[in-house]
Amino acid sequence: MRLLWVVVxxxxxxxxxxxxSDDYTRYELLAPEAAQFRIVYEVTxxxxxxxxxxxxxxxxxxxxxxxxxxxxxxKPLRFExxxxxxxRAAGETKADLDTRYIKVELPRPVPNGGELRLxxxxxxxxxxxxxxxxxxxxxxxxxxxxxNAVVLPAGYELVACNVPAQVLQEPDGRIKVSFMNPGPxxxxxxxxxxxxx
Amino acid sequence: xxxxxAALLLLGSSVASAQPAPSAPSAPSAPSASSAxxxxxxxxxxxxxxxxxxxxxxxxxxxxxFELYHDVIQAGGADRYLNVxxxxxxxxxxKAVVLDTxxxxxxxxxxxxxxxxxxxxxxxxxxxxxxxxxxxFPKVAAGQTLRLRISETxxxxxxxxxxxxxxxxxxxxxxxxNAVVLPAGYALTNCSIPATVSETEDGRIRLDFVNPRPDEISxxxxxxxxxxxx
Lengths: 197, 230
Description:
heterodimer, A: Immunoglobulin-like, ten-stranded mixed sheet, 2 helices, 13 strands, 51% strand, B: 15 strands
């Protein structure tokens, strides 16, 4: 009888939309000619019993080099890119049918009252969000995640950032801006770098 | 005394003279209760309505010097503004302008014993190295206000210096709005407190700090001279 309740609980939870929290995104701007940036997204799945986690791929961005890790064990996780219909069928009931998703196979069901921490690594190509203006690079993107960092390409200095941000030099010399958005809306972030002489 | 306390609440480290404030509700006579009331009033002041702002223009770091201007509003009853120089800093070439009219005001800098002789209350004990910039103006009439811009050059080897080839600026800011402009030719490398970043028309890097909280932010920023990449 107890086993039956466990099975019912797991199946119903898996069908529910996965909840998440604690997310933080790091954008690493790659060579500006390619209009590509690496995204390292840390997120915590919190839906009890969930077996999958769905991460949308933003429309207008071409994704590549995806990888997903369990942050507790450091081990890579299996995933596949699915369309919105497949995401809905797998339990992401509010999935947008015009959006593609990274469907992550969780290594274990999210514990009741617990969480499962993930790192999703991917590269986007999006010339509308990341482009050059003469000797400058511009990263202009609406960011819904509350905690973010943007790392300039090597050899660039920071010349503009329109949201209050810490400025921190990485060990390899790259400049990072790091910021939190406590407000209710997405932050329309514009970061500009200029190539050093 | 109440007026001076009110000015201190408004101006932070600066002191303005003012006519007596309206009588406060009957307060307990015990000093501890009065102190608690002052602390409570300080913590509950409306931060967003404060009109004090400051802009620092850093000179080459080997000089340890930075120009600055700060703006303040003086309320009815005030007839002078005392700008107490932070310990460790020295001040040069102070100027004051009434922003409402463009009129320049006379300023004088007093140190140590001269402060005591002038009978000025700077809101803290007068030490031999105490320094204060005194700006006098006709008493502001009741119901009126005066907006001042004070420009000065500070030298502070402890808080602004060159460490190796790295510019280091390390200073606490008490105002809601503060800005720092790097010297020409310097690229920003670190900043401990969130700031927006922009370029001035002449290509210098400017950082703007807004602190909505009623506390001080401790800003540590570093920068390096631009040079050819190896």
